Every structure is written in C-alpha cells, then in structure tokens.
Amino acid sequence: MNKEHFSVTKLDKTFGATVRDVKLSKLTEGEVKELYSLWLRHSLLIFPDQHLSTIEQIEFAKLFGVMEFDLAPISNVRSDGSIRDPVDDDVVKSLRGNMEWHHDSTYMPIQAKGSVFTAHQVPEEGGETGWADMTAAYKALDPKMKDKIEGLSAYHSYVYSQAKYKHKPQEESEFSGYGFDVDPHPFRPLVKTHPETGRKSLLIGRHAYGIPGMSKKDSKALLDELNDFACQGDRVYHHSWTPGDAVIWDNRNLMHQASPWDLNEARVMYHSRIQGDASSESGLNYL
Q: Which CATH superfamily groups domain 3-286?
C-alpha cells in the first residue's frame, strides 16, 4: 500500500503514535499489514474520530489475532442508564482496581496479546488511560538490578490484586468473576522476551506477588520498587479521551491504568481483548 494514505505522528515518549487519515472499519489488506507493523514498532496506536460500532470494533481487533473475548463494557453505567454505586458495586470495585498499573490477563493461564479500547462517553474531567513502556523500563535498569531479577518469577492473581478493594466472587454479583477462579495462579518471569520483536521487558504490575525465595515483605518491596521505577518520565503516556477515539496496544510490553474520575459521572468504554500465543504467553506452570 501507499504509506501516504494515512499519517503517523509519534508521541513525545519512548513509545506510541497517533494515526490519522485512516478508516478502521474499511481497511484494505495492505493497510492491515502496515498497521500491524506500526503496532509492533510503537506498541500503542491512537486513532482519533473513528466512532466504531461494537461490531466494527470486534472486527478490527480480530485483524490482530484470535480473540480472548470479543467485547466487554468498561463502564460505571448500568444497561438502564443509571450510575452504579461509586463504592459498593462490584463492577466499580473492578474499575478501581484498574486504576493501578497492570498487564491484561497475566492472572489467566495465557496472557493477552493486546487490546482494543474505544471511548463512547467520557467524564468532564479525569478518566484518562495511561500506558507505561516496560521495554524502555527494563533497558533503563542498572546492571545490578538486571542481574538481581533475571532469574526471578512471580505469581499473578486477580484474587490477590482485588482483595484490597474487598472484591471477591459472589453469586449474586453482576460482576462475572472473570479471573477469580484460576487455579493454580499463573507463574511468570519478571523479565520476558517479546515473541515478535525479541526485545526484553519487565512483566510486573498489580497482579504480581509472591516471588519464591523471598518473604512476602521483600517480594512486595521489590515489585513495588520496579513498578515505581518503570512508570515514570517519558516511559509513560496518559491519553485524554474524546468520544470516537479508538486505540490498540501491545499488552506484552505495555502496562496500563485508568485515571480516577468522579464516579458519579458516566464513563462508557468498550474493550476487546486479543488472545496471546500459548507458546509465549502461557504461565510457566501452564506450559
């Protein structure tokens, strides 16, 4: 394809680009190949003014791989339009958890490959989504820390990460419980290699805990230290949403988080999750 059919503007970060002059609902085969290449290069692609329908979003996501799940609302709004309780609602508890840095589905047997996210209704203030570059973070570690973590692994658990929000499986809850029932908890290296680019990155985030050979206190301290180091400076980008925006990110080397907003205000987003390749994204205890 002619690369001039759409414009690509790199973010002023270690990753990410905004792509314009493209219609995601009407891509040619050549455009799909070019976007996939751009995605591997930049890890995060932002597409303003797309206004994808839910069906169009799913079809776009499928161009990047097999789906882990087609579509899920990430929203504090019920189907009848009412706002969920900002404290006690289980769906809101999951939204609060998402405000911490994480990779998607590290708590599942197979970590997600990537995700597509679209904005439908956004609050007046707050509610941005942030991403952090774990490849650049690993590269920036001092040699001593690289040596320390090279052979270490941690467990990942949604039960663990949601416990602080008093969130647990309940039969009467509207929350589906996705991720609560995984046993054993997946075991993953702190340093992983991207299967398509060959680059090393950190695999950490809020779901990680329990590094074998360390006390709970020391394990948490090391994971917190890595998270704090990684998620700063030009390794981080927060996107202010406009309805109609669509993004796709590489979950294998980016962490992400939602920014807080007034939970009495509506925020309606839709998430499509792309399944990881079992050969590279399975937990070590699921290989």
A: Clavaminate synthase-like (3.60.130.10)
What's the rounded Cα separation, in Å, for the pair 281 and 287? 9
Task: State the chain's mean pLDDT as an integer.
Answer: 95
Reported as a pLDDT band with limits 50, 70 and 90, residue 1 is very low
Q: Are 118 and 270 in contact (CB under 8 A)?
A: yes
Name the pLDDT band for 5 (thresholds 50, 70, 90).
confident
For the chain, count helices (H), then strands (E). Answer: 8, 15
151: its two tokens: 């052979």
Q: With beta carbons less than 8 A apart as the criterion, state whether 283 and 182 touch.
A: no
- Whole-number Å distance between alpha carbons of 226 and 10: 26
Report the alpha-carbon distance of residue 192 to residue 75 in Å, rounded.
31
Closest alpha carbon to 258 in 119, 160, 149: 119
Quote the percentage of the chain above a pLDDT of 90: 90
Q: Going along 122-267, which residue ranges are E strands?
A: 129-133, 153-156, 187-189, 191-193, 200-202, 208-209, 236-239, 246-250, 254-258
What is the arithmetic mean of pLDDT over 78-107?
A: 94
Give the domain ranges of the chain.
3-286
